[in-house]
Design brief:
Blueprint (H helix, E strand, L loop, with lengths): L2 H14 L6 H11 L2 H6 L2 H6 L5 H10 L3 H18 L1 E5 L7 H4 L7 E5 L9 E5 L6 H16 L3 E4 L5 H11 L4 E5 L12 H9 L1 E5 L11 H11 L3 E4 L7 H11 L3 E4 L7 H11 L4 E2 L3 H7 L1 H8 L12 H8 L6 E2 H8 L3 H13 L3 E4 L3 E4 L1
Parallel strand pairs: 3-4, 3-7, 4-5, 5-6, 7-8, 8-9
Antiparallel strand pairs: 1-2, 2-6, 10-12, 11-12
Length: 373
């Protein structure tokens, strides 16, 4: 690591170590001061004038930098641990920071990673569920994960007991890639019985954490982890979950992030299926029974990745409708921007969009924005 990068990371590490300074405030300060060094060295009056932070936070930055050497030493210790376990730090501004994760609200500015991102991580699907699955849930997880891996889809999960473990193990056994997002430091394997699985994932996948080395798997860490699981993924599949399960938190994050949510229906008398059935009942998740159901929903997003035709109902489209559809994704785009991308008049573009909406392929949002259905 060169000196300049070390200094910048040390300063970012310093800011993130202070109370009440999250992603939004740091990004706001950087937009005004243009560099992390300028933020850390700014005078109290300059910090207050930005309107981004309170006097208390500004005072914390100014007084805490007197102890900057302590934070710098702590950062160096983190680096030493990461070197020993084969880990590294990736920041929000690095080229290899996941693009999907960058699009969520309050993305982590620093992630600790073991492994390397590949092109397959551009098209992941997360699979989550209860820590106490039924045989039905285990079977469905294995079948669907195997089906997704056949199409070179990367499986994201949380390395927890139960469905998460089944999803990771199935991906590994099927020769696919999998990403484990953990709620502790990279040097703290939890649950401990997953140490062998942890090592297997490192061989052909990634381990990711928002938490510095040495962090214990405390309860407040897991909701933060869950937003990263969904944030890394085009869609989230919930296999089994009770009403208050962590898997439903992940689904909620996915909905907030404008990502697809899928759920396996289950026995209405089984507590493990109550959460999935509720998601489907409320229209918050699409009912799926196979990997193909998920692939069909994400067909246009996944086509560049899998290079295969996904079986889907035949819908006749004109050449212009196909061109419009190929420019859309599951992220909203304003009609004016879409028309410009297509070199088409706004009125013509709207005609094709409405036709596609009628065919159930496109959804119109407020403000004349559109996305794939």
């Amino acid at each position: 690591m060169n000196t300049q990068k070390r200094e910048n990371l040390s300063k970012l590490f310093f800011l993130q170590s202070l109370d009440r300074i999250g992603t939004a405030r740091i990004l706001s300060l950087l937009s005004k001061f243009k560099s992390i060094e300028n933020v850390v060295n700014a005078e109290f009056s300059e910090l207050i004038q930005t309107g981004s932070i309170s006097k208390k936070i500004a005072e914390s930055i100014v007084t805490s930098r007197e102890r900057f050497d302590e934070f710098e030493n702590e950062f160096d210790k983190q680096n030493d641990i990461l070197d020993k376990i084969g880990g590294k730090i990736i920041t929000y501004w690095d080229d290899n920071y996941p693009e999907l994760l960058k699009r969520i609200y309050s993305p982590p500015l620093i992630i600790y990673v073991i492994g390397d991102f590949t092109d397959k991580e551009k098209y992941p699907i997360s699979v989550v569920g209860t820590r106490h699955p039924t045989q039905y849930g285990i079977y469905q997880t294995e079948m669907i994960v195997q089906g997704l891996v056949e199409y070179d889809i990367t499986i994201v999960s949380g390395l927890a007991r139960g469905i998460d473990t089944v999803a990771h193990k199935t991906a590994v056994k099927s020769g696919g890639r999998t990403v484990a997002v953990i709620g502790s430091g990279l040097d703290v394997i939890y649950p401990p019985e997953n140490k062998k699985l942890f090592n297997k994932i490192m061989e052909n996948g990634l381990i990711i954490s928002e938490f510095k080395c040495g962090t214990k798997p405390d309860a407040p860490n897991f909701p933060r982890r869950n937003r990263i699981i969904s944030g890394l993924s085009l869609g989230t599949l919930v296999v089994e979950s009770n009403i208050s399960g962590g898997a439903l938190q992940t689904a909620s994050h996915a909905l907030d992030q404008n990502r697809e949510v899928f759920a396996i229906p289950g026995n209405i008398s089984a507590a493990q299926s109550a959460g999935c059935n509720k998601l489907i009942q409320k229209g918050e998740a699409k009912l799926v029974t196979s990997a193909e159901d998920i692939l069909i929903e994400l067909d246009l997003l996944l086509k560049p990745a899998i290079g295969k035709n996904i079986p889907r109902p035949s819908i006749e489209l004109s050449l212009f409708e196909e061109n419009v559809l190929n420019c859309l994704s599951h992220l909203p785009i304003n009609i004016d921007d879409l028309a410009e991308d297509l070199s088409m008049s706004t009125s013509d573009c709207l005609v094709y969009l409405l036709s596609l909406e009628f065919k159930g392929l496109v959804v119109q949002l407020p403000g004349k924005s559109f996305k794939l259905a």
